[in-house]
């Protein structure tokens, strides 16, 4: 596949099926529940994390642009299933562990790539690797216990929702800074949906949203009057949760 990019007749559509094998395998392995979870992860998932990252790392090399693997989605963008059907609500712990480890591994890869590319140092509110919405897209961990089943993803989502105090500081507007930021901005709504999945029971969902609302009003609304902050955040959260 990689060697094929050197051919003058190379056509990406010829390789779509081949590239789609990885997300197809991921989806198929999610239906296997034959063994205890630790065994399932070791047999089915651990090697797949390494394989996905290995393919993506090679695809990010300059001479392989024709494969379209040099995007934040990596090889997972070749998943043909509708993302709406990939919101993983009731999965075994091994599947969530796979997605969490994949998120961590892909983020580490992109940190290395971005660091080697240089650029202007960014304010701490910006991710140094992948943004939260791109870690395992098009899959979504929709667990009510994400802090237990996917601790890395949970930390990233919490950092994006419960932003640091410096979130209100002005962002440098220089061209180099904007270029370094690029598409690497955490999506607040995507992070919120990880912390407050839609299927939560009414009282639990209400409690989690109340916590987010309280934090946003008191720590992320310095330029708004309190009444304005309450109105803004209530309306915003209602559209994102």
From TrEMBL:
Protein name: Uncharacterized protein
Organism, as annotated: Arthrobotrys flagrans
């Amino acid at each position: 596949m990689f060697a094929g990019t050197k051919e003058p007749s190379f056509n990406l559509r010829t390789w779509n099926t081949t590239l789609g094998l990885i997300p197809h395998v991921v989806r198929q392995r999610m239906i296997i529940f034959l063994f205890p979870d630790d065994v399932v992860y070791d047999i089915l998932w651990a090697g797949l994390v390494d394989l996905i990252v290995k393919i993506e790392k090679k695809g990010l090399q300059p001479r392989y642009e024709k494969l379209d693997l040099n995007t934040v989605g990596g090889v997972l963008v070749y998943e043909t299933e509708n993302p709406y059907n990939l919101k993983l609500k009731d999965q075994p712990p091994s599947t969530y562990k796979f997605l969490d480890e994949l998120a961590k591994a892909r983020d580490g890869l992109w940190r290395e790539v971005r660091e080697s590319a240089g650029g202007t140092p960014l304010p701490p509110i910006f991710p140094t690797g992948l943004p939260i919405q791109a870690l395992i897209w098009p899959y979504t961990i929709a667990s009510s216990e994400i802090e237990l089943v996917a601790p890395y993803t949970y930390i990233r989502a919490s950092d994006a929702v419960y932003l640091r105090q410096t979130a209100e500081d002005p962002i440098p507007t220089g061209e180099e800074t904007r270029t370094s930021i690029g598409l690497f901005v955490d999506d607040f709504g995507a992070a919120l949906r990880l912390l407050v999945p839609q299927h939560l029971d009414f009282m639990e969902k209400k409690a989690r949203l109340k916590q987010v609302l309280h934090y946003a009003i008191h720590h992320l609304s310095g330029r708004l009057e309190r009444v304005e902050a309450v109105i803004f955040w209530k309306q915003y959260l209602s559209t994102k949760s």
